[in-house]
Amino acid sequence: MGGTQTVTGDCALIEVSHLDKVYSVGDDKVTVLQNINLTVRAGEFVSIMGPSGSGKSTLMHILGCLDVPSRGQYQLHGQAVESLTPWELAHIRNQEVGFVFQNFYLLPRMTALRNVELPMVYAGISPVDRRRRASELLHQMGLSDRFQHRPNTLSGGQKQRVAIARALANNPSVLLADEPTGALDTKTGEEIMGMFQALNQGGVTVVVITHDAKVAHYARRTVHLLDGKIVGEEDLR
Amino acid sequence: MSFTEMWLAAASSLRASPLRTFLTMLGIWIGVASIIIIVAMGQGGQKAVISTIASTRLQNTIQILPQEIVEPGLPQPGQVLSFQTSDLQLAQQFSGVASVSYSLYGQATVGYHSHTLNASVQAGPAYLNDLAHFTVISGHMFTSTDVLAHRQVALVSQSLAGQLFGHESPIGRVILVGGYPLQVIGETISSQFDLMSRFLGSNYLYLPSTTCRDLFPWWGISEMDVQVSPGASVGQVSQRLVTALNIHAHNAQAFEDASGLWLGLEQTVRKVSTILTLTIGSVAGIALLVGGIGVMNIMLVSVTERTQEIGIRMSLGATRRAVLLQFLTEAVMITTGGGLLGVVLGVGASASIRWFTGFPASVSWQAAGVGFLFSMVIGVACGLYPANKAARLNPIDALRYE
Ligand SMILES: Nc1ncnc2c1ncn2[C@@H]1O[C@H](COP(=O)(O)OP(=O)(O)OP(=O)(O)O)[C@@H](O)[C@H]1O
Ligand SMILES: [Mg+2]
C-alpha cells in the first residue's frame, strides 16, 4: 500500500455511505454529521466547504481514522474501517493518511527535520533513510536552509510547508488538509494552495476543508456541507 | 523505533525541563544513596566491633577471666572476682603452658607538673600492645625484662600525651601515677577503630603488669594470659586449665576461657547490628518509595501537559505501544538516573566517612546493585500508570485537548 502513483484514476479511495456522527453532551445527543455519502477517487482534488460548525473537521477526522463514525460504513482503500483495532488504525494513519492542520501541529521541541522524520520513525524506517527522505521533502518545499529551525523560529507559511512535508513523509494515499490557509495571509495561503495543486498534479489525492470559496476553487470538485449534511456538489473543471 | 532512539527521545524530552527532571530525580537519588550509606555504616560498624572481638583472641594465647555472673550488679556471695598469685603459679606449672602473665585494668590519676588528669590504666605483659590493640608511634614498648624487673616505665596514648605535655615529645618525661614517678618511654595510638574511646575517652596509660601491682596492690588481677607451648592443643590446654583453676578455687564456676565469651558477644553484635541496619534501611526504602510516588506524580502532570503532543504523535501513526513506551522510558530514565547518582553519592559518602572519621564504613556492592535495580523497578512501577493513561487516550480527544 502507500504509493499514490500506483493507484489508478478511477479506483474509489474513500467510500463513505450513510455515515452519522452523534456526540452525547450530558443527556443531550448532538448529531454533527447525518447521512453522509461521499466517494473520493484516487488522484482527485476535492474540497469540502461549509460554514463554521457544519461538521467539516469532524468529517475529516473520521476520514483520517482519528475518530470513528457512530453509524454507517467507511471504506478506505477497500478496507472497512469500523472493524479495525487501535493498532490497525494507527497503522492507517501512519501509512495511508497525511494530515495538514490549520494550526500546523508541529512538535515545538523538535527541529523541522525531526518533525518531518517523525512519521517515518513510527514506520520503522532507518535513521539514515528517513533523514534522507526528510531532507528531500523539505528541499522540495523550498526549506533547504531551515532544516535545523524549531517551529517557533519559522513563519506561518514555513511552518505549514514543514507540516506538508511531514504529511508526505510516508507517501500517503491521501492528504487531508483542514483549513490549511486559515492561519496565513492571502499571499502565503495562495502559495500553499499552489503547492497542493502541484502535488495533486503529481498524483497525490488531496481533500481540502475550507469555508473560503477562493480556496475551494483550487479543487476540481467541491462538496458543500451544511448542518452536518451534504447539500450539494459542483464539478469546477 | 529502536531502543537507542527511544532513550535519545526520552533524554531530549527530559532535557526540555531540566529543573523538574532534577527535582524528580532527587527523591530517588537520596533514597538510593541513603540505603547504600546505611548499609555501609551498619556493616562497617559490625566489622569494627567483631574485629575488635576477634583480634582479642591471639594465636596460641588463652585469656582466662573470672566468670561473669549472668545478672550484672553486685558480686554474688562466693563469686570469684580476680586471680590469686597461687592461681598464676598453678598455671605456670601446667603441662602445655609456655608462660603465664596477667593483666590489670583500672583508673588512676596522672600528674605532670601542675596538671592532673584521670586515665584508664591497662597493665600487662610485653605483648600488651596486642591484647589492648595499640601501636607505638614514638619511643618503644616495654620489654619482658622491664616486666620482670618491675621497671617504673609507662606508655601514654596520644591524647593523654597531648594534654600533659602539649606539643612537646613525651619521651623521657617523668609523670606521677598514684604518687609514684614513672618514666614515659613511648607514645601510642589505637591500632583499630576504637568504639570504646567514643564513650570512655581515650586517655590511656600502659604499664608493665608487675609495676602496676607495685603501684596498686589492691587491684585484682582481672585477666590471665597463658601462652601455650608449641605443639600443644590450645583448646585442650584451655579446658584442662580452667577445670584445674576451678578446683583450686573450690568453685565450679570461678573462671572461664574468654573465647566462649567473645563468640557469644560476636553473635549478639551481629544480630543487633543486622536488625538495626534492616530497620534503618527500610526507612530509607520508604524514602525511595516516596521518591517513586513523586515520579508518578510528575509523569501524570507531564501526560496532562503533553496531551496535544500525544494527539499529534497519534495522528502521525504512533501506536498505543509507542506512546506507552515513550512515557515509560522517561520514567525509567528519571529513576535510573537518580539511582545512578545515588550510587555515586552513596559510595562517595561512605568513602568520605571512612576517610575523614576513620569509621570503617564498608561499601557493599550488593547494596549498591540492589538500590540501583530497585530504582529501575520503581521507574517501571510508577511510570506504568501514567504511561498507560497516555497510551489509552483517544487520538481525536488528545488532539483537540486544550
Ligand atoms: N467532542 C465533541 N462533543 C460534542 N460536540 C462536538 C464535539 N466535537 C465537535 N462538536 C460539535 O460538532 C459540530 C461540528 O464541529 P466541527 O469542528 O466539525 O465544525 P467545523 O465545520 O470544522 O467548524 P469550523 O469551520 O469552525 O472549524 C460543532 O457544533 C461542535 O460543537
Ligand atoms: Mg474545523
Radius of gyration of chain B: 32 Å
Q: Count of helices of chain B?
A: 14
Main sheet: strands, sense, barrel of chain A: 6 strands, mixed
How many structural domains does the protein architecture of chain B include? 2
List the helices and strands and how they pair.
The complex is a heterodimer of chains A (237) and B (402).
Chain A: E1 12-25, E2 28-41, E3 45-49, H1 56-63, E4 71-76, E5 79-80, H2 86-95, E6 97-100, H3 112-122, H4 127-140, H5 156-168, E7 174-178, H6 186-201, E8 205-210, H7 213-216, E9 221-226, E10 229-235
Parallel strand pairs in A: 3-8, 3-9, 6-7, 7-8
Antiparallel strand pairs in A: 1-2, 1-4, 4-5, 9-10
Chain B: H1 3-15, H2 18-56, E1 61-66, H3 85-92, E2 97-112, E3 115-124, H4 128-132, E4 134-139, H5 144-148, E5 153-157, H6 158-165, E6 174-177, E7 180-190, H7 195-200, E8 204-208, H8 209-215, E9 223-228, H9 234-248, E10 255-257, H10 258-305, H11 307-315, H12 320-357, H13 365-391, H14 395-400
Helix pairs in contact in B: 1-12, 2-10, 2-12, 2-13, 10-12, 10-13, 12-13
Bound molecules: adenosine-5'-triphosphate and magnesium ion.
Describe the structure concisely.
By secondary structure, chain A is α/β, with parallel strands linked by helices. Chain A has 7 helices and 10 strands.
Note down, in words, how this protein is organized.
The complex is a heterodimer of chains A (237) and B (402). Chain A is α/β, with parallel strands linked by helices and 237 residues long. Chain A has seven helices and ten strands. In chain A, helix 4 packs across helix 5. The model of chain A is unreliable at 1-9 (pLDDT under 50). Chain B has 402 residues and is an alpha+beta fold. Chain B folds into two domains: 3-52 and 268-400, no CATH class; 68-253, no CATH class. Chain B is built from 14 helices and ten strands. A six-stranded mixed beta barrel of chain B has the order 2-3-8-5-7-6. The longest helix of chain B has 48 residues, at 258-305. The interface between A and B is medium-sized, with 25 and 22 residues. Magnesium ion binds at residues 56-57, 178 of chain A.
